[in-house]
Amino acid sequence: MRHTLVKHISRALLCGIALTGPIGCKDFLEEQAPSNLTPTSFYTIPDHAEAALASVYASLRFMGDGAGIFSSNWQLLEALSGTSTTETAQNSDLNNLYGLVHDGNTAHVVNYWNGLYRVIANANQVIEKVPGITPMDAAQKTKIIGEAKFLRASAYFTAVQLWGDIPLITKSQTAASDDFLPVRSSKEDVYKLIVDDLTAAEAAGLAWMDVSGRANLAAVKTQLSKVYLTMAGFPLSKGASHYKLAADKALEVITYANANPSVINLFTTYEDVHRESTENRVEHLFELQYNTLVAGNPMDNFFPNFKPVTYNGPGGTGSSVPTAAFYNSYEKGDLRAKDQAGYFYTTYYTNGNGAAFDLGAPYVFKHFNRTANGTAGVAGSRQNNLNVPQIRYAETLLIYAEAQNEVGGPTQAAYDAFKRIRDRATLTTPALGAYTQATLREAVWRERWHELCYEQITWFDMVRLRKVYNEKTNGFDNFVGHINLSSNQALQEKHLLLPLPKQELLNNPNLKTQNPGYPGV
């Protein structure tokens, strides 16, 4: 943890240098510019709290950072799922993920660990330091701390799902800290912190939605419902009690949305899922914020390899493309699989706005920005400011449908939430009476695979369910032994967890052993 934690914890605290020397005006020379930030002058006014919180939000963008040639960190969770493959095969680390032969040296694994603990470290600073700022409006203080706890909880939620028992760090650290070389805490303890943080965020006075992109009540409640849903499944296996918690929490969001459909709802069209003008609104409960003035949208590895779909001409990498089997698994007539109308495209316009041409295969359209790249007869802005969805209302509905079905079988409310997803896809849904608890369970799972694909969600479903969608049978296989059609490799027991980064094991002997099945140090 040495490199991960210390390097980033105090980067905002800049110490001034006192200038001394045997010359006149010594007192003048020893004065420090009032704009310099020191450990004692930062976290003293409300603006410092806002700036520190902004750094936590900024650190979330590690997901879009590069991971070698033609690859980004976000591909970690897509390559493992088996729903995508590559047209380039020029990145050995990405190839190892697709081939399920990744280890503690794989760049994406290392970058995710470092990125998540950077978010945690920055959030810990806010949570620890902001309470001492005086004077500061109490409501503003509570809100900032609540947002930081939401972000910390979300980072720990990702980390515990990826690695299992992990270091649980809740205070800012220095080399002199007692837990500078932390031990791994149990999954139970990590989940307790996650629930406590999200519960605190829920009570922090956040608005239901926030068009600025900051954390909001709908996102917090949906994230908490998702945490409960995950705790109900593997590896904690808490079962019925936590399915009930998940259903109840998701229902709070649905109830508000039903009463305020212009505030929270499903978008009318799939185009709105990847339109700049709809960011942080309606269906987008929480997103990673991108603007080319700071950081442009990082999803261009979804562009097809060397096909001129943008203003850049034939320049895409195609390092993440749908497998034909997954694309073909959509039901006939599913709008989500229709060219340019749903989440895929099979044709586009030369250089973004020229003559239409056939791509020769389906590609992911869900993160494609027409405003930036161009569309029929309209040149692109060349500024890809599209945000990346993290929590959509579509997922809230599917969480409720799954959890409520586990609690009480196929109730009308669970069926209605599930059917709303299918209605937008223009699919015919059998009547409620046609479903048993078992058949509705798998129907909801299929909708999660088809609705939430390529949003860094599918892998976590595979781990919590210990089940994987089989594109050929339209059913579900056990996780262990399932063949990922992206590589024709079988998932093994060890793949339920990622390996700890090898350098972390070398730096911190308190981490003890590597996760089972992976080579140690």
Any descriptors?
521 residues; mainly alpha; Serine Threonine Protein Phosphatase 5, Tetratricopeptide repeat; 3 domains; globular; disordered N terminus; TPR-like_helical_dom_sf; RagB/SusD family nutrient uptake outer membrane protein; SusD_RagB_dom
Describe, in plain words, how this protein is organized in 3D.
The chain has helices at 2-9, 26-30, 46-59, 75-79, 92-98, 107-129, 138-163, 187-202, 217-232, 240-259, 324-328, 370-373, 393-408, 412-424, 437-451, 458-465, 502-507, and strands spanning 84-85, 284-288, 321-322, 344-349, 356-364, 388-392, 467-469, 476-478, 483-484, 489-490. The radius of gyration is 24 Å and the shape is globular. Helix content is 40%, strand content 7%. By secondary structure, it is mainly alpha-helical. Strands 1-3 form a two-stranded antiparallel ribbon. The chain has a two-stranded antiparallel ribbon with strand order 2-6. A two-stranded antiparallel sheet has the order 4-5. The model is unreliable at 1-29 (pLDDT under 50). The protein has three domains: 40-205 and 477-520, Serine Threonine Protein Phosphatase 5, Tetratricopeptide repeat, CATH 1.25.40; 206-289 and 387-424 and 446-455, Serine Threonine Protein Phosphatase 5, Tetratricopeptide repeat; 300-386, no CATH class.
